[in-house]
Amino acid sequence: MTAKTPTVSRRRALIGAAGLAVLGAPAIARAQATAGRLVIVGGGFAGATAARASRERFPNVAVTLIEPESSFVTCPYGNLVLAGRDADLSRVTHRYDKLLARGVTKISQNAASIDPVAKTVRTAGGQTVPYDKLIVAPGIDIKWNAIKGYDEAASRVMPHAWKPSLQPVTALSERLKAMPDGGVFILSAPANPFRCPPGPYERASMVAEYLKANKPRSKVLILDAKDGFSKQPLFLAAWKQLYGDMVEWVGSDKEGRVVAVDPAAMTVETEFGKKHKGDVINIVPPQQAARIARESGLTGTGDWAAIDTRTFESKAVRDVFVIGDANAAPPMPKSGFVANSTAIRAATVAGAQMTGAAIPKAIYFNTCYSHVGKDYGISVAGVYRPNEDGSKIDEAPNSGGISAREATPDIRAGEATYADGWYQSITNYMFG
Amino acid sequence: MRIRTVALLAGLAVAAAASPATAQVPPVAANGCLMCHGVQGQGANGIPAIMRVQSRAEFTTTMKLFAENKKPGTIMGRIARGYTDEDLAELAAWFGKP
């Protein structure tokens, strides 16, 4: 890199110009996009963040986003529809227009395959898209039949509502509204790892909020493939306080793991043959990296893509980064915040490799809020760094963790308010 | 640390020379801040504004008090304990009043 280091006064001058960049970006971007071609597959938390981060950092890198949908529906905040707090999906639906106005070219098709030798992506419509660096951010696919009988047809009777582009949360809220008072809502939660570890338990909370107000004789039964879960002590205490005995959690050590479903009988079967009948059944199924990641050799023989924790480059395929829920990056959760944080990293490294810029140090963040009831929010946070050789990720000592177990109503109400602020800020970064 | 921050931006200098319309990029440690406190650190729905609200020294002190559980809060103690002194210096340079 031959650039001279800007002076401090120059830096201040550039801050003044920053506002202009938003308006002026598209035309300038296309004219200057000569340093390389970044192609991004998938426009969720990871992909949309990577697109913006690249445009901000590397105006002379051309960014192409391959994403079939014209808008993105977030998983976070979808559960509020179940509580009846939101009437529809409008809060969680975000158009790509403003991201595209930053100088991102969008190809509105599915990515069909990746040719890592020719360095091209083939779209479902037959277009060949060349890349210098490729960011794969396709999210998850459901592992159909991992629970016996749980296939796509079964999911129309027992919704998963865990992948909005496939089945939005409204598929579940319609059934909840039709459920009689005194009915049983069963939620089957998967083993780790899966998308949004606290998500099933926030969902159970929002269902309980609705039932308490509308059908108070009903019950929420969580059947779990794990013997513990995210923010567990906080959820358990809050359920007791807010909903009494309405919410029951059964862990895997108490035969909670669902192994089979019978949509016709509306029953689920747990490990040792016990059958539970539900009026509404929500299966949060086992998951894997989405098809394009699996079929491109990024996941090897496993379910998730292996990455170098320093850069989020694939360990299997050169010049390819895998971010978001499709990778394996423990102990970080598969969350929107981690997708965002690691997407900025991948875009920064990819851009630096193409332009010769210096690569800064790496630090990753997670913050996940859950709504448990009205004016009652809880959170988990984490600060992470990769180790020296990129083989693992370490949580910063003494940092992170869940909200205080003993807290005043003000604190819980504060976290519920801050949750809304987080949602506004992160979606504004991606789509605003 | 000012120099460090500037060094992170050096990659932009080529583009900056060609065009004045180049956005500034916060230090990497700030990415954890912005996704709650707002893209410009302007605050959001009760989450306080942090951009140019305190001097650099005050900003650093605030973060250290959070880290030591000497300042009441919800999530900030858990996050503040994850930063190194170097991170905090970069954050103070970015968010603090000049």
End-to-end separation of chain B in angstroms reads: 14 Å
Measured by DSSP, the beta-strand proportion of chain A falls in 25-35%
The multimeric state of the shown protein is heterodimer
Rg over C-alpha atoms of chain A, rounded to the nearest angstrom? 22 Å
Helicity range of chain B: 40-55%
Looking at the structure, the CATH topology of the largest domain in chain A is FAD/NAD(P)-binding domain
Share of helical residues of chain A: 25-40%
Strand fraction of chain B: under 5%
Number of strands of chain A: 25
Question: How would you describe what is shown here?
Answer:
The complex is a heterodimer of chains A (432) and B (98). The relative contact order of chain A is 0.14. By secondary structure, chain A is α/β, with parallel strands linked by helices. Helix content of chain A is 32%, strand content 25%. In chain A, the strands form eight sheets. Chain A has a five-stranded parallel beta sheet with strand order 5-2-1-9-20. A four-stranded parallel beta sheet of chain A has the order 13-12-11-17. In chain A, strands 22, 23, 24 and 25 form a four-stranded antiparallel beta sheet that branches. Chain A folds into two domains: 8-139 and 290-362, FAD/NAD(P)-binding domain, CATH 3.50.50.60; 144-287, FAD/NAD(P)-binding domain (3-Layer(bba) Sandwich), CATH 3.50.50.60. In chain A, helix 7 links the parallel strand 11 and strand 12. Chain B is mainly α and 98 residues long. Chain B has a single domain (27-95), classed as Cytochrome Bc1 Complex, Chain D, domain 2, CATH 1.10.760.10. Chain B is 49% helix and 0% strand. Chain B contains six helices and no strands. Chain B has helices spanning 2-8, 13-18, 31-37, 56-67, 76-80, 85-95. Chain B is globular. Mean pLDDT of chain B is 83; it is low at 1-23. At the A-B interface, helix 1, helix 10, strand 23 and helix 11 of A face helix 1, helix 2, helix 3 and helix 5 of B.
